[in-house]
Amino acid sequence: MKHVYEMKELAKRAPKLFGIPTGTRLDEMFYKVVYENESYVKQPLGGLPSYSVINVTGIPDTGKSLLAEQFALYQAMRNYKVLFVTVESPAQFLYTSLREKSKIFDIDFSQIEDNIIVVDASQSFELRDNIKSLLETLDYAINKKSTTITIIDSITGFYEHKEMVARQIVREIYNFLKKHGQTSMLVSQKRSGQSLDSAEAAGGLAVAHILDGTIVLSKKIIETKYDVSLYNMPLGSVLRTIRIDGCRLTPHDSRTYVFEITETGFIDIKMPLEEYIKR
Question: Is 7-278 assigned to CATH 3.40.50.300?
């Protein structure tokens, strides 16, 4: 009976909705509807919905980790504490990547070192295979360092070769992050056989179904004369796209956008695909 509430009993527990900036155009793509001048208007949220747990998915080499690192750097630069759980790349390589990117932001790297707390699960079988051990470690890091942002790259590493229990693992991590009030970005790997612009990832629909929203990154190789004509790009080049596939917490722009990975390794979202083709 402790889980049964009258709606009014939840008023004091309901979190305020605001944006957590990513430093990309995603901050404009999530929005809320407000009442102004006797009408309802859309107002950019200014970032990921507060306290949301967002799935970032795509096939390899679509920019998922770059987006996660960019989000981490942007929040650390604003003096927020970020917990970064690295599952694929050893922590020392993450350090090098963030250090080089901080030079491009032209910020003091010591500020990044102070504000990003790293849990290295890439070289720990216990953390990857034992969900209880993982959550105890995250609980220690969050409480000891007072983090408000959590990034996991990638959550797929926690259920490799055991996708039958993927839903259970994702649910436990999701509930943990919600309980601790973390605004989170969880990278998940898509099977190459799946539709490139779908939300499905390894583990079936476990990730997209449970988490609060999904951002899908995709890429198309320009390989026919028709592609060259349609996209006005050279043969063999790559068109990258990003789309908010869904979010249960707030309205969002559901159009597919074109983005570029700059020479300096950052995500630069340009414009909706329809506008790109018209141009």
Answer: yes
